[in-house]
Design goal:
Layout: H1 4-23, H2 29-48, H3 53-82, H4 89-111, H5 117-149, H6 151-172
Length: 173
């Protein structure tokens, strides 16, 4: 696990993103998703900034579980629901394509030794894709989903998402 400073910095970034999401009108699960996006973004930046292979492995282990469990829970609990609304059904396909790309990039990082310069390059490609994915979700997908689902449903969806994510984390650990 990352050290206390790294974890705290990531959590602060996440909480700040959640507040910003609320200001933009997002509620419930969508503020939690924004929080997690920005938390993992900080961890990715920290991993990219270190040359210490042990620290890279430590951060990567945490990043990998966070990314995979987040995506798995989204695919299980959020996107199937959005597929049922005519105003959001297109989002599901677009998200699925992005999730496939993210998983391929995660596997790429997994296969490269942390001591290698290629590791940093693979991580940079993943980080760029994560940023692109987050940008699209937070600026397009989430506002449309919030409008379709409504405030109460998004609040009720948060604990369901978090349970699915914890189950995924258990499988990944």
């Amino acid at each position: 696990m990352a050290n206390v400073f790294e974890t705290t910095a990531a959590k602060v970034a996440g909480k700040t993103a959640a507040v910003e999401a609320r200001i933009k009108g997002l509620k419930g699960v969508f503020t939690k998703l924004a929080e997690q996006h920005h938390m993992v973004g900080v961890l990715l930046t920290q991993a990219a900034g270190t040359t210490d292979p042990a620290k890279r492995r430590e951060l990567w282990s945490e990043i990998r579980v966070e990314l995979m469990s987040h995506e798995q829970a989204e695919l299980l609990e959020i996107y199937p629901l959005l597929e049922t609304y005519s105003t959001t059904s297109d989002i599901t396909l677009r998200h699925g394509d992005q999730a496939t790309e993210l998983e391929a990039l995660i596997r790429e990082v997994d296969l490269i030794a942390a001591e290698s310069d290629a590791w940093r390059s693979a991580l940079a490609r993943l980080n760029a894709k994560v940023k692109e994915h987050v940008d699209q979700e937070e600026k397009d997908f989430f506002p449309r989903a919030q409008a379709a689902l409504g405030d109460e449903a998004t609040k009720q969806l948060e604990p369901t998402f978090l349970r699915a994510q914890e189950m995924a984390k258990s499988r990944l650990a």
